[in-house]
Amino acid sequence: MAERFISEQGNAITINTLAAPALEAFGQRSYLGGHVTIEETALPDSKINHPLHATCKTVYRVEIKEGLKDTHGSREGFAMNLICQEDEFFYSIQEEYLHLLDDGEVDDAELWTLLSPRVELPVPETVGGTHVSKISAGNVRHLLNRTEAEREKLAKRFKAGSLEISADAPEGSIQNRFYLVLNKFQESEETISSKGTSFLEFDGAGFRELEDGEVPDIPGDGLKRIAIIVHGLASRIREAYHELAIHLEREGYHVFGFDYLTINQPIADSGKGLSENIKNLRTKYPESEVLIVAHSMGGLVARSAEVVHGAEIDQLIMAGTPNSGSLLVSNQNLVRNLFLLGSLMKLLPIKSEDLRQLIVSKKLRGLDDLANKSAFISELNANDRLHYSKKYFSLAGHFEGAPHDLIVHSGNMTKINETHMPSIPVEKDHFGYFKGTGWHEPLDKALLYLK
User: InterPro entries attached here (predicted)?
Assistant: First the structure.
């Protein structure tokens, strides 16, 4: 007998996209004695319907009703086994949380500060060309449960009525449902162009990718002032740094960008790639002055290029760089969920290969290096004495007056080995250093200081 598309055993439900869906009666169907219903649905106006580097294939609404018990007496005590093709992946998101994300009056960054993301991105095992993953009972509890304090915060900040988030919401309301989403990785021109490491030149209109080892002719006579933009974690050069490139060009710099993989590529490897491009520029333009403007993880890549690989950098401006490593990335499951959300909300211009590694790889070497006081961070800081000179400068973001930019604490941005570097506070969150109004003013102060 052919395997069923949706089946149940014990307190577990299995969805197998490799089985013939024709064997199932679609629409709404009940499982586990009527305590769980699964309904195929469509959300054309939702953010989840337009993922980066993927297409949304199928969305299921899963509802858990009263009476379902596991051995611990929990009504959410069931798991879901998920089987799909190698180019597909599942994730789940609480329905109420998705309503908040899709609501135009809810600020995404503010939402992040109020409650942990009600999203679960299971890491698959690859078996014979297929992905096998699981939404565990613990994952389900995280999706559906919410503390009273969280509900009160949401009710105070956002409209409670239409979103059903008031503290007295009845049992069995929207909070008992979540969506299970099946996506398929997409190969497009943009996806193919965002897979790996590259060096780019800004020509006033945009960035163009250079051939390996290519050093373009820089117009003008005399000293060549070169600026290299290095992006941060789960990002890429091009549109996200266009305004920064234009501003640096106006300040007299010939602007380049360094694109690299961030999720599963060791930071030292990225630093080596940046160093090789700087050395190529230095060889052709030995009297050149090299400025690096780096965001977040990019500051560690730039420091590695110089401290570990010997690149000659004249000035380094870091925005939101966790110089002692990040406590956040120590919890890789949380990072996976946050970055999945970031890609859905278009907050993160994550590369296609970084997204794929985030979804399918169990061990993420880039995140391991970025973690607080990792072996990489400890060795880099032990060997870096360059910040004692007038060389490094930190732009330290503060979100709504807090001593952090949502992601990195300001003290982590402004100190190396407990020694302060020149810095300036910026009223920006981690994703807004080079966006909005007035963003160039602290950068100009840093440039003036470093001259």
Answer: AB_hydrolase_fold, DUF7379
Please tell me which residue, 238 or 445, carries the higher pLDDT value. Answer: 445
Residue 308, CB-side half-sphere exposure with 13 Å CA sphere: 23
Q: What pLDDT score does 192 carry?
A: 54
Could you tell me which residue, 105 or 254, shows the higher pLDDT? Answer: 254
Element (H, E) at 190: helix 189-192
Rounded to whole angstroms, how far apart are CA atoms 273 and 275?
Answer: 5
359-365 contact pairs (CB < 8 A, 24+)? 359/89, 359/121, 359/123, 359/124, 360/89, 360/123, 360/124, 360/126, 360/131, 361/123, 361/263, 361/264, 362/123, 363/264, 364/263, 364/264, 364/332, 365/264, 365/265, 365/266
What residue numbers bound the domain in which 81 lies?
6-185
> What is the predicted pLDDT for the residue at 212?
87
Backbone φ/ψ region at 33: left (φ over 0), alpha (ψ -120 to 50), beta: left
425 near 431, Cβ under 8 Å?
no
Amino acid at 407: I
Helices (H) and strands (E) in the chain, counts: 15, 21
Is 104 within the bounds of a domain?
yes
Q: Which of 185, 200, 226 is the last residue of a domain?
A: 185
Q: Are strands 392-397 and 36-41 parallel, antiparallel or unpaired?
A: unpaired
The CATH number of the domain where 341 resides is what? 3.40.50.1820
Statement: residue 190 has pLDDT above 90: no
pTM (two decimals): 0.88
Residue ending a domain, among 167, 185, 203, is 185
156 exposure class (CB count in 10 Å sphere: 0-12, 13-18, 19+): exposed
Phi/psi class of residue 39: alpha, beta or left (left: φ > 0; alpha: ψ in -120 to 50)? beta
**Residue 1 belongs to a domain:** no
